[in-house]
């Protein structure tokens, strides 16, 4: 899922810090 388009990658960077916060 890391080999997606640049836009998706930017969303991932913003989602990564939110993932551990939800857990």
Automatic annotation (TrEMBL):
Identification of the protein by name? Uncharacterized protein
């Amino acid at each position: 899922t890391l080999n997606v388009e640049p836009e998706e990658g930017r969303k991932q960077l913003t989602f990564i810090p939110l993932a551990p916060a939800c857990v």
